[in-house]
Amino acid sequence: MKNKKERIVILGAGFGGFTLAKKLSGADYDVYLIDRHNFHQFQPLFYQVAMAGLEPSSIVFPLRKAFQNSKNITIRVAEIKAINTQEKLVETESEEIHYDHLVIATGAVTNYFNNDNFEKHSYSLKTVSEALAIRNDIFDDLEKAITTKSYDNRQQLIDIAIVGGGPTGVELAGALAELKKYILPKDYKELNADEVDIYLIQGGDRLLIGMSDEAGQKALKFLESLGVKVMLNTRVTDIDGSCIKTKDGQTIIANKVIWAAGITCEDIPGISKEYRQGRNQILINDQLEVEGLDDVYAIGDAAYLKTESMEYGHPQVAQVAIQMAHHMAKKFRKSNTKAFVYKDKGSMATIGRNKAVADLPWMTSAGFFAWVLWLLVHLASLIGFKNKLFVLINWMWNYLTYDQSLRLIIKPSKAKKQP
Ligand SMILES: Cc1cc2nc3c(=O)[nH]c(=O)nc-3n(C[C@H](O)[C@H](O)[C@H](O)COP(=O)(O)OP(=O)(O)OC[C@H]3O[C@@H](n4cnc5c(N)ncnc54)[C@H](O)[C@@H]3O)c2cc1C
User: What is the 3-state secondary structure (H, E, C) of the chain?
Assistant: First the structure.
């Protein structure tokens, strides 16, 4: 009788899970890849979807298409409900799936620091649907603003505040400033684009805290030159849907607040608090194993790996997830037992046309070179030739015409069934 293959179950098809499944395609394992979405999402370009620079379809890739030719990969589009580490089972809303090896790659979610108002009255940017919701509401509110007579009511509709001065906040603020500068005067002639205020609120005393001081300073200079109102050392205390209150007593009138001020990991029933550290991540050793649980591993944003050089865990970025996935694949395919070592290839953030900052292993760069590098790295990292081509065409078009053409308000409505 033929030996039954061992089963690897991968939870999450983000950078870590998707890369691992690709690397295990054709291997002598039965692999299950489970995600709540039927597509892989390229999170670093969400902000361009939100700012009408790219179509959502250019930055996602359908899972079933990606693994069409991989006989040993089974896809499940389902919500992961619990893990039973005693019985070696993963529970989804529709079935129980047995595993021999389990890899948790469920990523992170927006952290509202247990404040219901932050969650209720702000936008998060962790899925492509959320990016689309931001795009819809920005253009919806601009339409409403045209016929709004009162200055204060108009400000509420057109002003936008971003909370969090990390890469997401900085990139969003830069893209919004360009929308204001190049698009609004052409498309919304009845509005005074100068009335549109873009706020970037940062709790710390500098931007891009995970990057070098020089990168943070340059990003601040670039954003201010684009007219963004950067508020450093400012803590948000309340958001109520029409304004934001800060600890130092300021009130900012804006009904659109984008929350980019932190991430945390969701609890999964079955993985108790004793295995959690950092931003509610799962504590792993340098073999990427969850110590104390047999055959359970964690990678990417969901994993907390402390080393001598990374006292507070690894950064929650795509490269860490991808490199951990490569390491896991080697472990499964070649029984590799080497410790995982992260190779930091640098970090980048773009602020707009011709402007980016990049901390490279040998230098910090700011301006045109960093911007070109940013474009190339992101283009190369996208999944699928069609996606790369469409994004490149869009970027070239936007660069040459100063006029991206995706400012559509498309909201789902219930399809009518034919009688
Ligand atoms: C707006 C934004 C911009 C970013 N920009 C950059 C950048 O420029 N450079 C960079 O290096 N990093 C960037 N990051 C961070 C980077 O995207 C993450 O570090 C990376 O995605 C982590 O990969 P992962 O596989 O651990 O998790 P993810 O890619 O987040 O994947 C997790 C997957 O698990 C699925 N999942 C989670 N819970 C469940 C459940 N209960 N049931 C079913 N499925 C579930 C999710 O749907 C998701 O597909 C950015 C992130 C965001 C949000």
Answer: CCCCCCEEEEECCCHHHHHHHHHHCCCCCEEEEEECCCEEECHHHHHHHHCCCCCHHHCEEEHHHHCCCCCCEEEEECCEEEEECCCCEEEECCCEEECCEEEECCCCEECCCCCHHHHHHCECCCCHHHHHHHHHHHHHHHHHHHCCCCHHHHHHHHCEEEECCCHHHHHHHHHHHHHHHHHHHHHCCCCCHHHCCEEEECCCCCCCCCCCHHHHHHHHHHHHHCCCEEECCCCEEEECCCEEEECCCCEEECCEEEECCCEECCCCCCCCHHHEECCCEEECCCCCECCCCCCEEECHHHEECCCCCCCCCCCCCHHHHHHHHHHHHHHHHHCCCCCCCCCCCCEEEEEECCEEEEEECCEEEECHHHHHHHHHHHHHHCCCHHHHHHHHHHHHHHHHHCCCCCCCCCCCCCCCCCC
Domain count, the chain: 2
Asked, for residue 121, whether it belongs to a domain, the answer is yes
Summarised one tens digit per residue, pLDDT across range 361-406 is 989 999 999 999 999 999 999 999 999 999 999 899 888 887 776 7
pLDDT at 285 over 90: yes
Q: What are the pocket residues of ligand 1 if the criterion is a CB atom closer than 6 Å to any ligand atom?
A: 12-17, 35-37, 43-44, 46-47, 79-80, 105-107, 125-126, 167-168, 266, 300-302, 316-319, 321
Task: Say if 63 falls within a structural domain.
Answer: yes
Instruction: Determine the structural domain holding residue 211 and report its residue range.
Output: 116-262
pLDDT tier at 418 (50, 70, 90 boundaries)?
low
Residue 301 CA to ligand 1 centre (angstroms): 7
Shared domain check, 254 and 288 = no
Indicate the pTM of the whole model.
0.94
Q: Please tell me the residue having the least CA distance from ligand 1 atom 52.
A: 43
